[in-house]
């Protein structure tokens, strides 16, 4: 195939053979993308694309209107929706992009083309923003939607058993209501960017093809590659290209004899250009410990020097197990692939098809346990193909950049437990706790949390409820508010097992309290007395003031353990409202729902 038509000549120094060599192995889509990318980088490209976009903006809509909705907890779905909208605009499609939280459900009936980008939260639940639409669509009040064409992009994480559950539910329900798919649903794991971009390109191609078919005979010709494809600026650091941040400080925050092991870790961001806001998280790309890698190799009867390929790149098995593949956690997809590769184990096949059994099986087991309990003579290649890429772990940022320029601080709880005859260590927390010393580097990137943010109006009060490492973002919040001279009052509820050993950042909080930069501090040390006391009990004790602050417009934040904190705090808050407003349980639930909708009740639970 030649890239050149007869009347084309190549610029200085380029010939057809060179181009062939440079582009061997690329598929059509990649070639088209590159043509747009390089064109867009030239001055002419920048100018022409701009004028093409302006010209398109001035043209009347040629095709059906496109609405892109996103339901997002931390901003990933929002980012994808906005990128998709940008691509759609470049194709000349009339597009509206909207947070599903602000979407009037009655508008559904009038939609023609709908793209929905939605994550799954909790244990297979919709993000708060999408709760209302989800409830409405699944109810018997949902209208028939025979004129709607749609596609769902589901964001999720395969380490959760209900993988992409919300996206699935939306997709299946829309089909049940008579809507027709523009493209099959795509489900994305934590590394969602590539799959999301492919989904966006493919669904927009379908939309463009339909518009062009509908346009036959109109004055607008089909859209061309240069109009459609201009590369968006890549975010500098990511899972695949993390920043090497030097460890500046590492302090054990718990006192001797504590049941917890929590580290305050300070990292340098010097020369990275990385920026974050309080409420964002820092993702750390971990490595598996030597001991676990050795356990896995032994259980698999394999040699660490055996060569394998991952995505076309050659590794020694030992290196891949250390750096690239998840070993400390078992997920459904891994079990499914292993069961398929070892069909002789009938009990394993049964576990894989039964969610409650699966849930019980994976809890507290790792890859070495699986290999020992269900032995199979897999080759090194087969084992690598069964395992899952090692995901980064997120940590709430515990510092304000205003106070600590070019630094980021984390509060990391070491995960350690003993099950099935071995002591286990969480891969990332133990990487940070045990294997990273001062002056070593951690591989990191910033994970924005779009919604877990301080109020825009600095005069607004905030109530923060944090248990254990859940206090981390509140250190950043208070630092930032003090630095900005925010007038709003700050109130912290903090919980952990024991006062003497587990009062994280005690000196700092007491100083804030003394200076008035923390108006109230309420602590719950659960194990300091015979009867357990948790932060939710403290909230109830202070119900009058809590309600008063909320009525005065306060924002309410919760951070920490999902299982222990999430629903307990919501229940406590409903009781506070019921008691102080003298209303029914239903009205109190409505009050909480309204707070969520206004994004004044915000959770960062994990
Ligand atoms: C937005 C966000 C913010 C976060 N912020 C923080 C933070 O500020 N500080 C912090 O410390 N963490 C935080 N986390 C959690 C963090 O990302 C990791 O999940 C945590 O450090 C554990 O990861 P790991 O790699 O060490 O453990 P993994 O290797 O992932 O192992 C964890 C797994 O071990 C198993 N397990 C754990 N304990 C037991 C037990 N007792 N018995 C049996 N099995 C068990 C469970 O299956 C669990 O899923 C946050 C998470 C998110 C999503
Ligand atoms: C507390 C919590 C619970 C989650 N629960 C699930 C789940 O049940 N199923 C799933 O597939 N993904 C789950 N996820 C993963 C998210 O869907 C994933 O991180 C997604 O990229 C978030 O997108 P968003 O920022 O648009 O909300 C969960 C994430 C968190 C932090």
From TrEMBL:
Its EC number is 1.8.1.2. InterPro entries: CysJ (IPR010199), CysJ-like_FAD-binding (IPR003097), FAD-bd_FR_type (IPR017927), Flavdoxin-like (IPR001094), Flavodoxin/NO_synth (IPR008254), Flavoprot_Pyr_Nucl_cyt_Rdtase (IPR001709), Flavoprotein-like_sf (IPR029039), FNR_nucleotide-bd (IPR039261). The keyword Ribonucleoprotein does not apply. One of its GO terms (molecular function) is sulfite reductase (NADPH) activity. Signal peptide: none annotated. Residues 66-204 form the Flavodoxin-like domain. Keywords: Amino-acid biosynthesis, Cysteine biosynthesis, Electron transport, FAD, Flavoprotein, FMN, NADP, Oxidoreductase, Transport. Residues 240-455 form the FAD-binding FR-type domain. Its cofactor is FMN; FAD. PANTHER family: NADPH OXIDOREDUCTASE A, NITRIC OXIDE SYNTHASE-RELATED. This is Assimilatory sulfite reductase (NADPH) flavoprotein subunit.
